[in-house]
Write a structure and sequence with these properties.
This protein is an alpha/beta fold. About 30% of the residues lie in helices and about 20% in strands.
């Protein structure tokens, strides 16, 4: 079961961070139920989680030369995109329909590693991420925790809920949701080497989203303004429902469903 991936502390007892990493691993184990393994028994096959230098990462033991996958909202790449990217001209921001200084609340119902959610947060949105995989949710939670250490004002606008997105949206309570963003995992037909490392790992660990069509109806019922679905240009529309409009880029398009609330 994915919730039972082993959790290993990668730092050495000789490192200054070892004691803190042990405490961090124990807290993650208590919160998410990942079994801690003795550091002398490093997993040698399959997937496992590790804590090293205060970072939770996902490891594929068969990939000896590949770095762990983690969520780092404060990475140089993320911050560069925040500072020098398109801002409100980013395709996802245009698709969401953010205008003026209104404090929009967006649900990202398929957050993955949270990169698109961070783009929306960086332009002023509050984003609720709903993630059903305990592994991915734990990675996101760790990323938000570390972001709060450096940029608390950004971390405060990121909320994480663990659960099935279709069910959470159906029974969602709280503040109004202006827009909902869906980016379901799409099975890639090309050679795996052409797909990003993180995507390959997620596809191996989680598979694609066979129930993605079930997300559209509750999303359209909940959102007050828009539902946006990111799709490869070659993909069919979600649930066979034609969007109100589409914003296209070289490899992807954003199908936009306008919501008419009474």
């Amino acid at each position: 079961m994915l919730s039972r991936l082993p959790l290993w502390v990668a730092s050495s007892p000789q490192q200054d961070s070892f004691s803190a990493d042990e405490k961090r691993a124990a807290a993650i184990s208590d919160a998410w139920g990942f079994p801690l393994v003795d550091r002398a028994l490093k997993p040698t096959d399959g997937f496992y989680l590790q804590v090293c230098n205060d970072v939770l990462g996902l490891v594929d033991a068969s990939e000896k030369k590949t770095l762990p996958v983690d969520v780092d909202f404060a990475s140089p790449a993320s911050l560069y995109r925040k500072q020098h990217g398109g801002g409100r001209k980013e395709p996802i921001v245009k698709a969401i329909g953010l205008k003026g200084d209104a404090p929009w609340h967006v649900i990202d119902a398929t957050p993955g590693l949270g990169r698109d959610a961070f783009v929306l947060v960086s332009v002023g949105c509050t984003v609720t991420m709903i993630e059903r995989s305990p592994v991915v949710a734990a990675l996101l939670e760790d990323g938000i925790r570390r972001l709060a250490q450096r940029y608390p004002e950004l971390a405060q606008r990121m909320v994480l809920r663990h659960g099935n997105s279709a069910e959470v949206m159906q029974y969602f309570s709280g503040e109004d949701v202006n827009a909902i963003y869906l980016d379901p995992m799409f099975p890639h037909k090309k050679k795996s080497a052409l797909v990003k490392k993180e995507m390959r790992l997620f596809q191996q660990l989680l598979g694609h989203d066979p129930d993605a069509d079930a997300l559209l109806a509750p999303a359209r019922q909940l959102a007050t303004h828009r539902v946006v679905v990111k799709r490869p240009n070659s993909a069919e529309v979600l649930a066979g429902e034609k969007p109100s409009m589409a914003i296209e880029s070289k490899k992807h398009r954003f199908d936009v469903y306008l919501c008419q609330k009474p």
